[in-house]
Prior knowledge:
Blueprint: E1 3-7, E2 18-20, H1 23-32, E3 39-45, E4 49-55, E5 58-65, E6 72-76, E7 86-91, E8 94-99, E9 104-105, H2 106-119, E10 127-130
Antiparallel strand pairs: 1-2, 1-3, 3-4, 4-5, 5-6, 5-9, 6-10, 7-8
Amino acid sequence: MNLTFFDREDQANALNGSLVQDRERLLRILDGLRNRPPFVCELAGENGFYLHIGIGTMGHAQYSRMDGEPPYLLAVAPQPGRRDEYMDFLLWQTPTPISKRYCMPFDLIREIAGYFLETGNAHPGFGWEDA
């Protein structure tokens, strides 16, 4: 499946609007952005679904429809943190708190993003909860 990449923190990012067709390119893009403060990017699938991911040492993933209708699913970390503790990810220059229940090591976010590229679906190896 083809994805389109959008940096939702840096509108001037030269990668905005880039077509991503293979896993290697996707992972190179994501890994190359980890030197910034935690922020959100968006992968728009040609199937009508988004994968919003938090990029940093830790990350998060939300799977949702492009038309704004449910579901809005957040991947649950394999070893979830406390629901009442949060990490901030920048989104449109605004710190956006994400419960640590949904924050996981970035290697797992890479896995979720790779699966989304291949299938257009939420990774079945993770639990997903309504946002």
